[in-house]
Design goal:
Blueprint (H helix, E strand, L loop, with lengths): L1 E6 L7 H16 L2 E5 L3 H5 L3 E4 L35 H11 L3 E6 L1 H12 L4 E5 L15 H22 L2 E6 L6 H9 L4 E3 L7 H14 L3 E6 L11 E4 L7 E3 L2 H9 L7 E5 L11 H19 L5 E6 L2 E6 H4 L11 H8 L7
Parallel strand pairs: 1-2, 1-4, 4-5, 5-12, 6-8, 6-11, 7-8
Antiparallel strand pairs: 2-3, 9-10, 12-13
Helix pairs in contact: 1-9, 5-6
The chain binds 6-O-phosphono-beta-D-fructofuranose (F6P).
């Protein structure tokens, strides 16, 4: 077999661990030939591929990013390099020319949507879920999430000591556009006093009340806010719009907005830290390395068994697979009845409501 592999969308710790596991499993167990496609779907459009042998995937388990490169604008069904034209015929012809029996796509909901369109045009695809946001449908955990949570938790630990020393309100803004998984998990782990997530619009007066109450007793307050959090009746804070991107809206800055609103309502100073892409860089945690390896191995097994157009997912402790069509373009938010929300409020964390 000849199998292509690509990483699409934003990068994420653990991508290399997946590439390594897919390549090793396919080469060692299935005797397959593996072709690395560079910069996501752009490599299929611009004909940039290279062979991946055992040596090229050696020593990459602990490295962040992706050895193949990625791209979050390249879409064969609307290619920015051709004025948004559909160049999928060109891609299909190139896949045939390469002699690929299968394509492994490691990506988020956007990449899965493209993979699904390619599958409908006859390319045998196996998907592997990637996003630090942990918001892909039908999987309990995407790799990269645990690493992001660890980074945010460490930041909260550090903000706590400086906030405590100065008697300040410290706001930490995390990634998480539409889903608040990172802020919720890290907020709990980093003992935030207030956690604000996109799914639960917050009330400013309630946030200020908690800060004032703590000002009187503990002197400092730790707020963990997801970039997609918004006030009741208000909208998200948009940082920029990237015109030719499949997902044009980039969020960011809600931490600064909150600071400007809160400070006049409080007697103490407020400081904001925006972690941004720090959450996506660097080595994956051991948990993410294991999960990424399991995903890569499971994806290779699907390919070897010729079970195509499926995505590997984690359900509880088990790696399973679901139809690509069920995952494509879908996301998974924090449900209002999620047990962690109850844990947070019952242990005295305010959710801003
Ligand atoms: O979806 C992953 C993510 O990291 C989001 O949490 C974040 O809002 C976005 O990607 C940032 O995208 P970019 O790297 O294009 O700025």
């Amino acid at each position: 077999m000849r199998v292509g592999i690509l990483t699409g969308g934003g990068d994420c710790p653990g991508l290399n661990a997946v590439i390594r596991a897919v390549a090793k499993s396919l080469i060692k167990s299935a005797g397959a030939e593996v072709i690395g496609i560079e910069q996501g779907f752009l490599g299929l459009i611009e004909r940039r591929v290279r062979p991946l042998d055992l040596r090229s995937v050696a020593g990459i388990m602990a490295t962040g990013g992706t050895i193949l490169g990625t791209h979050n604008k390249a879409n064969p069904f609307g290619y920015f390099g051709a004025g948004g034209a559909d160049v999928s015929e060109r891609v299909l012809a190139y896949v045939r020319e390469l002699g690929l029996d299968a394509l492994v796509v490691i990506g988020g909901d956007g990449s899965m949507a493209i993979a699904h369109q390619l599958a409908e045009r006859g390319i045998p695809v196996v998907g592997c879920p990637k996003t630090i946001d942990n918001d892909l449908a039908h999987t309990d955990r995407s790799f990269g999430f645990d690493t992001a949570v660890a980074i945010v938790t460490e930041a909260l630990d550090r903000l706590q000591t400086t906030g405590q020393s100065h008697g300040r309100v410290m706001i930490l803004e995390t990634m998480g556009r539409w889903a608040g998984w990172i802020a919720l998990h890290a907020g709990l782990a980093g003992s935030a006093d207030i956690i604000l997530i996109p799914e639960l619009p917050y009330r400013l007066d309630e946030v200020a009340r908690v800060c004032r109450e703590r000002e009187a007793r503990q002197r400092y307050t730790l707020i963990c806010v997801a970039e997609g959090a918004k006030p009741e009746g208000g909208g998200v804070t948009v940082k920029e719009r990237i015109a030719d991107s499949p997902e044009p809206v980039r969020l960011g800055g809600v931490g600064n907005v909150l600071r400007a609103q809160l400070e006049p309502m409080l007697g103490c100073e407020v400081r904001t830290t925006i972690l941004g892409h720090v959450q996506r860089g660097g080595p994956p945690t051991p948990f993410d390395r294991v999960l990424a390896t399991q995903y890569g191995h499971a994806a290779a097994q699907l390919v070897a068994a010729r079970e195509f157009n499926r995505v590997v997912v984690l359900k509880g402790d088990h790696i399973e697979s679901v139809p690509l069509a069920d995952v494509a373009g879908r996301s998974r938010n924090v449900p209002a009845d999620h047990p962690l929300l109850r844990t947070a409020s019952d242990t005295g964390i305010s959710l801003g409501r």
